[in-house]
Amino acid sequence: MSPIKAVLFDQDGVIIDTERDGHRVSFNMTFKEFGFTDEWSVEYYHELLQIAGGKERMKHHWKTKGFSKPMTEEEMDALIPQLHKRKTALFVELIATGKLPLRPGIHRFMKEAMDAGLKIGVCTTSNEQAAKAITENILSDIHFDIVLAGDVVKNKKPDPEIYNLALERLGLAPHEAMVVEDSKNGVKASKAAGLKTIVTFNGYTEEEDIEAGDIIVSSLGDPDGERAKMRKGGIADFDGVVHVKDVVALFG
C-alpha cells in the first residue's frame, strides 16, 4: 500500500487564481478607500509576490517606494493591520459573489482524494477569514482535516514551518503526505519539509524557478474542461488530467 495518507494544498494560485484579480484588486480598492493614490499594477504585484504575506507586502512597499501620503514607521505599523482587515473583507466579498472561480481540476482532485481516504489540508499565508470563505463556502462539500492560515506560524513560506506544523497536527511523516503548490516560495517550503510536490503554475509563476517540483503542470485538468499541459512528471499515458490514484502510485 502507498505511504501517501494526505494531500496539502496551498490556496492562492492553487485553489483559486486569486493573486492578480483578487488580492491585487482588493489592495487597490483598500488604498483608494483610505485616501491613497497608490495602485499596484499587474507587473508590480508580481514583484511583491516574492514576499509572503499581505501585511509584509505593504510594509515592503512603504520601505522601498513609500505610500502617496508620507508616514512614519510607527504610523505605518499602526495602519497596516487596518488596511489588511479591510482588504480581506473586500477579497472575501469577491469570493462570496463568485467572481473568482476555482482553478481547473481542483474540486475533482479533492473529491478523488476524499474517496481515496486521504486527509485533506490547506496551508496558506492568506488570512484565515479568506481561507474559511473558500473552504466553508465554495468547497463546502469537501471535508478538510486541517486548515492552517495567516499568522498561525511565525515564519511564512519559503520557510517550511507551516508544512511542518501540518505534519505534526496530522501525525504524519513527510513521506506520508504530498503538496499542491504553484510558486517558487511554495515549492521551497514544501521541499524543505521533505514533501513530494505537484506544481500547478499560473500566469504569475510559470517563469519562476519551480523546477524542484516532482510534477509540474499548467493545472490539474478536467475531463470535460481545460486539459493540463505537463512540463515535468512521470505519469504514464498522461491525457491532460492529473488523477489522485496516478500521483499516489507515482509518489508511493
Relative strand content: 5-15%
- Which CATH architecture of the largest domain? 3-Layer(aba) Sandwich
CATH fold node name of the largest domain = Rossmann fold
Helix content: 40-55%
Poorly predicted tracts of residues: none
Structural class from helices and strands? Answer: alpha/beta
Biggest sheet overview: 7 strands, mixed
Number of separate helices: 9
Element order: H for helix, E for strand:
EHHHHHEHEHEHEEEH
CATH class division of the largest domain = Alpha Beta
Taking the alpha carbons of the first and last residues, their distance comes to: 8 Å
Total strand count, please? 7
For the record, the count of structural domains works out to 2
Supply database-style keywords:
single chain; 252 residues; alpha/beta; Rossmann fold; DNA polymerase, domain 1; 9 helices
Any overview of this molecule?
With 252 residues, the chain is an alpha/beta fold. It has 2 domains: 162 residues, Rossmann fold, CATH 3.40.50; 78 residues, Putative phosphatase, domain 2 (DNA polymerase, domain 1). Helices cover 42% and strands 11% of the residues. It is built from 9 helices and 7 strands; from the N terminus they run βαααααβαβαβαβββα. The chain has a 7-stranded mixed sheet with strand order 3-2-1-4-5-6-7, sandwiched between helices. Strand 4, helix 8 and strand 5 form a beta-alpha-beta unit. Helix 1 crosses helix 4 and helix 4 packs parallel to helix 6. It is globular. The model has no long low-confidence stretch (mean pLDDT 94).
